[in-house]
Amino acid sequence: MSDNYERLVRTCYLEILQREPDELGLNHYVKQLNIGNISSLQLSEIFKDSIEYKHEPKNFLQNELKSTISKIPILNYHEISDQNNPWCVSSNAFLKQMKFLKDQNYKTISLTELKKIVNNHGDVDEKLIVITFDDGCDGVYSNAYPILKNNNFTATIYVIPKWIENIGTSFEGQFSTYMSWKKLKELSEHGFDIGSHTFSHKWLITLENNELKKELDLGDEYIKDNLGLDVKHFCYPYGSFTEQIQKIVVDRYDTAVSTIRNFSKITGAYSRQRIMRFTSLDEFKKILTIPED
Q1: Which end of the chain is more exposed for a tag (fewer CB within 10 A), N or C?
Q2: Is the dihedral of CA 62, 266, 108, 193 positive or negative?
């Protein structure tokens, strides 16, 4: 029964909060189900009534979602490996996806280039795309990098310094191992942008202002010290933030990306198209273009 409850809790996290569960949350809800404090039917309602769900950006940014549409997609990957995990896109699937982009004459651009296009209130005739990877997983270097290089593609990688070389990896990050600074340096020297995913991947909306500042400062400082780079691009842990946090991020970084899944380019919260292990090639093709109303 516990295994069934664990699957149920994981499903609620993924479908409602759109993230993997942290260890504390997973254990808490499985225990509550086991001892009968809550029922399976109540679980989804509890999640929908949570602070995290109510602060889901797509809820409070609703008015801006349609007014900031750009046809240039931003792809959101995590890991490229053959591990059987929802966040791990297989090497073969990634190869086919990149081949399709190349065959269709897509060209990758940086987030800095995208920002210029968005700020000029226009799209271009070329087929442009931005590729991003969250967390700095090792498979991005060993499996994705050779494929990207063969297609003359580049990407942005959002790293969590505390997880680098697998030091201090949190529960939800244990589906992978993580790149060394040496590997990240090589990628940065070959046209890849390195952005911050905060220092330790904390849920930002739970932090006091001084804790939030420390989490951002440390992330930027470690990247600067190890790679010699000023951090220009940011990714919210769990895709969760408030309007106040969004304003702080806009003041610090050139761009920031969210987990909102459409084509809006809200300042401080660019939307992305998430690619998961179960994303078929047909589904991949569909998410490259704005769906018709």
Answers
A1: C
A2: negative
Give backbone dihedrals phi and psi of 36, rounded to 5 degrees, phi first.
80, 15
Sign of the C-alpha dihedral computed for residues 107, 109, 113 and 118 taken in this order = positive
- Enumerate domains of the chain plus CATH numbers: 2-54 (no CATH), 60-286 (3.20.20.370)
pLDDT, averaged across the chain: 89
What angle in degrees, to the nearest 10, is found between the helix axes of 243-252 and 209-227? 30
Say how many Å lie between the first and final Cα of the chain, rounded.
Answer: 43
Q: Give me the DSSP letters along 238-271.
A: GG---HHHHHHHHHH-SEEE-S--SSBEETTEE-
How confident is the model over 163-190, as pLDDT tens digits? 997 776 665 557 789 999 999 999 999 9
Label each residue of 77-101 as H, E or C. Answer: ECEECCCCCCCEECHHHHHHHHHHH
- Residue 78's closest CA among 7, 175, 10? 175
Contact 143, 93 (CB under 8 A): no
The CA distances from residue 80 to 65, 142, 161, in Å, are 30, 9, 19
Q: What contacts 42, CB < 8 A, 6 or more positions away?
A: none
DSSP single-letter state for residue 156: E
Q: What's the pLDDT tens digit per position in 193-212? A: 999 999 999 888 888 999 99
> How many CB atoms neighbour CB 159 within 10 A?
29
